Amino acid sequence: MKTIRIGTRSSQLALWQANTVSHKLEQLGYTTEIVKIDSIGDVVLDKPLYELGVTGVFTKNLDIALLSDKIDIAVHSFKDVPTKLPNGIVQAAVLKRGDFNDVLILKKDENFFTKETAVIATGSLRRKAQWLYRYPNHTISGLRGNVNTRLQKLEDNNWDGAIFASAGLKRLGLLPQKEDFIKLDWMIPAPAQGAVMVAALEKREELLEICKEINHEETAKCIAIEREFLRVLEGGCTAPIGALATIKDEEIKFKGVLFSPDGTNKIEFSKSVPVNNASDLGEFAAKFILDRGGEKLMRQEIKIEKDILVYSTKTLSQDQTSELSSKIGISMSDFITVRSNRLKPKVVKNTLQNVIFTSQNSVEALLHNFSALELDFKTIYCVGRRTKKLIEKRIGKVAHIENSAEKLAKYLVKNLKEKEITFFCGDKRRDELPDILSKNYIKVNEVECYKTTLTPKKIQEKYNGILFYSPTGIESFLKENKAGSDIVVFCIGETTATEAKKYFKNVKVSKLQTVESVIKSVNQYFEHE
Question: pTM here?
Answer without folding.
Answer: 0.57
